[in-house]
Amino acid sequence: MKISGKLVMGFVVVALLGAAMGVFGIISLRRVDAADTFLYEKMTVPLGAVAEFGSAINRQRAYGLTAIISPELVPSLKKSAAEREQAMMHAKEVYEETIVNEEDRALFAKLLKEEASFDEELGRIFDLAERGLLAQAVELAEGDFEKTVVAINHTMDEMVAEHVAGAKATAEDNAALTNSTTALMLTVMSIITVLSIIIGVLLSRSISKPLGVAVTHLGEMARGDLRNDIPAMYLKRPDEIGSLAKALDTLSNDLRRIVEDILSASDQVSSGSEQMASTAQQLSQGAAEQAASAEEVSSSVEEMAATVKQNTDNSLATESIASKSSGVAELGGRSVMESVTAMNEIAAKISIIDEIARQTNLLALNAAIEAAR
Fold first, then answer.
1. What is the pTM of this model?
2. Nearest CA to 17 among 196, 181, 183, 184?
3. What residues contact 174, with CB distance under 8 A and at least 6 apart?
4. Stretch (H or E) spanning 165
5. How many angstroms separate the Cα of 215 from the Cα of each of 110, 209, 244?
6. Which tens digits make up the pLDDT trace of 260-279?
7. pLDDT digits (tens, 9 = 90+) for 4-52
8. Is residue 237 helix, strand or coil?
9. Mind listing the domains of the chain with CATH numbers?
10. Are 248 and 210 in contact (CB under 8 A)?
11. Whole-angstrom distance, CA of residue 237 vs CA of residue 252
């Protein structure tokens, strides 16, 4: 695999590890978020519903006591009690949706039963107050009605305690989940970090080590040391390092051949130098002989110079004679021209005579033909 492929693979592996850590972190955060949501919706919201229900109960209790004190207000108190009943119904619906265990469900059923008794007793108090039976109304309010209110408050306290305990347990579970998630994420991060470092070191060594070998080999070549070869393990690599190693190996082998050729040529040059020295000695001897010959040639040249001078004198005499001959030749030339002119005239006349002879022959031929007829 080429270096670029290795680098891409390394980055992809690191990216995948990072993505895995991110996914794990998201899942862990969602678990913590779900636990917090459970804590709020199943443990905190019910407490509000219980508080709303308790407030409505206490208000209705106050309406009952007010009816005993002011019977004339019973109609308006009934109306207010009905409005509070709507709030109690809403609180019960909210609470019922948050029930998470059977114990909580049993407490809720108990509360509904006690509420039914409360509603029945409150209605009786309103009825007694309207009829003016205040003593019976007071007896009911201080007796069964008060016991029912106390029972309802006790049940609500149990429900609150149940949810507080559940909230505490949920909070502890959330804390444990957060701690375990944090520890697990730190472990995963450590593993990913170690793997990333290992991948980086392996990639770095797979590139830097062979490059260091190549640089060392080039340094040896620069110093003229061509004895060492590239390790075979690098020559077999299919990546750019292998290509570089092969190129350096080829260069080293070529340089070795060049050096061998230079050494061989040096030996030949040395032998040729010896031959040239011998030849130079022979040439020196030949030069001495040529110097002696040159002296002889110089003497011959002097003799030739004397001969040339004599020939020059003869040439001058010949020139004088030639000048005289030129005058005679000029007179002869004019005579020749005149002879040529006369010959041309004679030739013209001969042509006329030939034409007359030809015509005569034609006439004779015609006469012969006529005679033959």
1. 0.48
2. 196
3. 32, 35, 36, 39
4. helix 146-222
5. 89, 10, 11
6. 777 777 677 567 657 765 66
7. 676 677 778 878 887 887 887 788 778 878 877 877 877 788 888 889 8
8. coil
9. 3-210 (1.20.120.1730)
10. no
11. 18
